[in-house]
Amino acid sequence: MNDALPIDDVMPELIAAVRARGCAVLQAPPGAGKTTRVPLALLDAGIVQGKIVMLEPRRLAARAAAERLAQQLGETAGETVGYRMRGETKVSGATKIEVVTEGILTRMIQSDPELSGIGAVIFDEFHERSLNADLGLALTLEVREALRPDLVLMVMSATLDAGPVAELVNAPVVTSQGRAFAVEPRWLDRPLRKDVRFDQAAADLVAQAVTETQGGVLVFLPGEGEIRRVQARLDGRLPSDCSIRPLFGALPFAQQRAAIASVSSGRKVVLATSIAETSLTIEDIRVVVDCGKSRRARFDPGSGMSRLITERVTRAEATQRAGRAGRVAEGVAYKLWSKGEDGALAAFPPAEIEAADLTGLAVELAVWGGDGLPFLTPPPEHALSEARVLLTALGALKDGRITTHGRALAKLPLHPRLAHMLVTGGKAAAPLAALLSERDILQGAPSDLSLRIKALSGEIGAHQIHKGALARVKQEAKRLAKLAPNAPEQPSEIYAAMAYPDRIALRRAGDEPRYVLSGGNGAHMDSADPLAGQRLLVVTDTDGNPREAKIRAALTISEADMRDVAGTTITTVNSCAWSKRDGKVLARTQERLGAIKLSDTAWKNAPADEIAHAMLDGVRMLGFKFTAAAERFRARVALVRAVDPSLPDMSDTALMETLNDWLLPYLNGTHSTAQWKAHDTLQALRAILTWDQMQRVDSQAPAQFTTPLGRHTPIGYSGDAPEITLRIQEMFGTTQHPTVAGRPLRVTFLSPGQKPIQTTMDVPGFWATSYVDVRKDMRGRYPRHPWPEDPTQADPTLRAKPRK
Questions:
Q1: 601 FRET partner, CA 20 to 30 A, in 310, 405, 621, 689?
Q2: Residue 117, class by beta-carbon neighbours within 10 Å (0-12 exposed, 13-18 middle, 19+ buried)?
Q3: Claim to verify: residue 672 and residue 713 sit in the same structural domain
Q4: Do residues 111 and 168 both lie within one domain?
Q5: How does DSSP classify residue 98?
Q6: What is the C-alpha to C-alpha distance for residues 501 and 281, in angstroms, rounded to an integer?
Q7: Are residues 194 and 209 in the same domain?
Q8: pLDDT-derived band of residue 463, with 50, 70 and 90 as boundaries?
C-alpha cells in the first residue's frame, strides 16, 4: 500500500465485521481513503468468494477509482481492477475488482438474480441517494435474503446519517474520523443583490480567492453552462501563472484528466460541477469556492421525464465541498452566500426517489416481479401510479404485468418513452431519441423541433447551434442506432408521437393558440410562433406550468399520421353531459384520443335514462326551486319527523345528496334549465315515503282543511303553527276554533277583496270582540256582502247580494 490513510485505522474493525456478519456500513469523511483502500483490503483478506463489484455514482469517478486501485497494485485498469459503464468496458479474465456505475448493477441483477461469480457488492458514496443506488441496494438485499446469504454487502458514505442504512441492511456501523486539516470558512458580508448576475458574482469571488490565497482553487458550479460563462468572465482577470480547467461529466476524458492531475508549475483553478464532491481526488487543491448551487434530478412535468434542476446547496453538500480544501493542508472555503443565510440551508439533499420521474423504476419493479423491495425511502405511491399509467400506454405493462415489449425497453439505457420510440421506430429514430435526451441544441429558437432535426443533419448554419450539445447528440445518436432494430424510416413526428402518446395536442377553438393534450392537460404557445396555427401537434417539452403550460418544443403532425400511430387507442364515445354554458344536457357522439375530441356530432336517439343522469348534474348546479305545493309537503313531513325520526329527511342538503334515489325516475323529458324551473317535484317527493309513512303524515299533518262550506283549502306548515287563509264569510256559524290532528290552526281572515283583515288563534273570541270593529269598517267597503251582527248565527257563504 501507499502512504497511510485515516481509513487504515479502522480497517481491522471493518474486516472483522464483514467476517462476522457478511455486511457493514462504513461512515468516513471525504479523503479518508475508503474508495481506494476498502476493495483491496477485502481482496487481501480472502473473505470474498468471487468478484468484488463497487458502485460509483458517476462515470468519471468510476474510471478514476479503478485506475487509482490498479495503480496501487502496479497495474493498469483492466487487469486485477477493471471498470464498466455505459458505452465503455475495461475488464479481463483476470479482473477481480470491477468498478461500475450504479445502473450497471441493476442490469446485472435483472439478467442474473443470483449474481453468479460475484462475492461482494460495495455501494460507494451512497449519501448521494441516487435512484439507481436506492434500487440497486433494495435488489441486492432481496437477492441476499432469498438467494445469496453468502454475498458480502458494504455501504460506504461520507455525510449520510448511517443509522437508518445500518438498520435496513442489518449491519454494524464502522466510523472513521478521517484526517482533514482545518478549513477556514469565509462568507459574504451580505446576501447577493438580486440584480447581480450569478456568473458575475461567482467570477468576482473566484478572483478574490486567487488574490487572497495560495494553492489550487476548486470552484463548485451547477453545470456546464455556468462553467463556460464564469470561465469567460475570468478571462484576463487571473495572474498569468493560473490555468483554468473545467471539469464536468460531458467533457472529453483527456480534459477531465487534466483537471484532476497536478500542474507542473503555477496554480490551477478547476471549475467543476458536483462531480468533484465524490470520491474523486483532485490534486493540489487548497482553496474551495462554493457558489451555493447544485443540480439534481427532478421530475420535470414539462418534458415528462427527469431533468436536472438547479437548487440551493444543502449543509451536507457544503460541508463536503469545503472539506476538499483541507485534504493535504489547512485550507480556505469561500461561500457565495452570507453567514446569516447559512442557517437556512436544508440539512441533506432529498433522495432522488422522492422527486424524480419513476417510470424507469416502475419498469424495473415490473421486470423483477414485485413491489415489496426493501427501499430505504419507499417510492411515492402517486408518482409510481402515474408512471405505470404511462407504461401501459407505451405497451410496456398490461394489467400491471411486464410485457415482452416492456422487457425490451428495460434493457435499453434510456427513459422508457425514448426506449419505446427506439424499439418501435428502429435505427432511424435514434437521432430524435438523442435530441430529446440531451439539452436543447438551438436555445432561443422557436418551438418547432424540426429545426433541431435539420441542425443535426447540417441544414442550419453552425452559428445558431450549441456546438458542445450538438457533438454529444451526434455521439449519442450513433450509440443508440447500434442498439435499435431495423425498421422502415418514418417521419420524425410519428416517432415523437410514439414516445409521447399523452402529449398529442389539439388546438382549441378561438383566436389564441391554446391546446388540449391527450393526457388531459392544457398548453399554449406564443401567437407569433410558426406552429401557432397548426391544428395537431406532438408536444415534447413545455415549461411545466400545471395550469396551462407553455409549449417549448413540438412537431406538427397530420391527422392521418396521428391515426396511424394512435389508432388502437382512439375510441368512439357516446356521452350525455350537462353544459353549464348552454344550460342544457348535450348528447354527443365523440371520437376521442385520451382527453382530446377528434370529432363531435349529435347523438341521435340518446337513451332517456342517460339524459336523465346528465340532468342530475344540472340540478346540482342549478339547485332546487320547489312549487308551493311541494314546499308545503316538505314542511308537513318535517313537522311529523320532529316526533317520528323514522321519516326521511327532506332538507335541501339531504335531498341533494340522494338525487339518484328519488329524483332520477321523474326526470324524463326534463333536460334544460327552463324545463327544470317548470318541473313539479311533488310527485317525486311523495314517492320517497312508504304507504304507511304517507298515512302518518296525512293523519298528523293533513294537507287540507275542510271549511264549513265543504271546500278544501290548503294548510300551511312553514310557520310555528299550521295555518289557513280564507274569506271571513266562509267561517260564519263557526262556534269552535278549528284544529287539525289536535293542534289549533292559525286562521287568517280575508276581505271579499282578498286582503287580510284579521289573524286569530281563537275564532269564537274574535266574533265576540274584534268582529264588531271589523264589521263597521267592512260594511261600507263591501256593502253587497253579508256582515251579520251575530256571525255565530249566520250561514257560511261566498255569495254576494245581487245588484239592484
A1: 621
A2: exposed
A3: no
A4: yes
A5: E
A6: 45
A7: yes
A8: low
**What Å distances lie between residue 176 and 18, 182, 457, 538, CA to CA?**
16, 17, 54, 54
Tell me if 351 sits within 8 A of 134, measured CB to CB: yes
Give the CATH number, domain containing residue 318. Answer: 3.40.50.300
User: Which pairs with CB-CB distance under 8 Å and at least 24 residues apart come from 11-15?
Assistant: 11/37, 11/38, 11/41, 13/174, 14/38, 14/41, 14/174, 15/41, 15/42, 15/45, 15/47
* Lowest mean pLDDT across 346-360, 472-486, 717-731, 751-765: 346-360
* Residue 163: strand, helix, or coil: helix
d(CA 245, CA 534): 47
Structure confidence by residue, pLDDT tens digits, 702-753 = 999 999 999 999 999 888 889 999 999 999 999 999 988 778 999 999 999 9
Please answer whether residues 292 and 335 qualify as being in contact, where contact means their C-beta atoms are separated by less than 8 angstroms.
Answer: yes
Which domain range does residue 635 map to?
620-700
Q: Which residues of 466-499 are buried (b: 16+ CB within 10 A; e: fewer)?
A: bebbbebbeebbeebbebbeeeeebebbbbbbbb
Q: Work out how many domains the chain is built from and give that number.
A: 4
User: Residue 235: which residues within 8 A CB-CB, separation 6 or more?
Assistant: none
Question: Do 313 and 239 have their domain in common?
Answer: yes
Q: What's the 3-state SS for 24-76?
A: EEEECCCCCCHHHHHHHHHHHHCCCCCEEEEEECCHHHHHHHHHHHHHHCCCC
Q: Domain for residue 84, yes or no?
A: yes
Domain final residue pick, 132, 156, 175? 175
Q: Are 261 and 282 in contact (CB under 8 A)?
A: no
Shortest CA distance to 739 belongs to which of 757, 759, 762?
A: 762
Among 293-297, 301-305, 793-797, name the one with the lowest average pLDDT: 301-305
Q: What is the pLDDT of residue 1?
A: 45
Residues 6+ apart with CB under 8 A from 154: 18, 23, 24, 25, 26, 38, 42, 120, 121, 122, 123
- Does 731 reside within a domain? yes
Say yes or no: 322 and 229 in one domain. yes
Among 175, 209, 237, which residue terminates a domain? 175
pLDDT per position as a tens digit, 139-148: 999 999 999 9
Listed in sequence order, the DSSP H helices in 261-403 are 315-323, 339-342, 359-368, 381-393
For residues 640 and 651, what is the distance between their CA atoms, to the nearest angstrom?
A: 14
Query: Long-range contact list for 181-184, CB < 8 A, 24+ apart?
Result: 181/326, 181/327, 181/328, 181/329, 181/330, 181/331, 182/326, 182/330, 182/331, 183/288, 183/322, 183/323, 183/325, 183/326, 183/330, 183/331, 183/332, 183/333, 184/330, 184/331, 184/332, 184/333
Residue 347: per-residue pLDDT: 84
| Whether residue 76 is found in the same domain as residue 187 | no
Q: Is the pLDDT of residue 573 over 60?
A: yes
User: What CA–CA distance (Å, rounded) separates 201 from 673?
Assistant: 64
Does any domain span residue 571? Answer: no
Could you tell me if 688 and 713 lie in one domain?
no
Range 186-207 burial, b when 16+ CB lie within 10 A, else e: bbbeeebeeeeebbebbbbbbb
Q: What's the whole-number average pLDDT of the chain?
A: 90
In a domain, 437, yes or no: no
Residues 6+ apart with CB under 8 A from 768: none
Ramachandran quadrant class, 241 (left: phi over 0; alpha: psi -120 to 50; beta: rest): alpha
Give the integer Cα–Cα distance in Å for 289 and 334: 5
61: which 3 cell numbers? 469517478
Element at 417 (helix H, strand E): helix 416-425
- Specify whether 773 is located in the same domain as 631: no
700 or 3, which is more confident?
700
Closest CA to 288 of 332, 245, 248, 258: 332
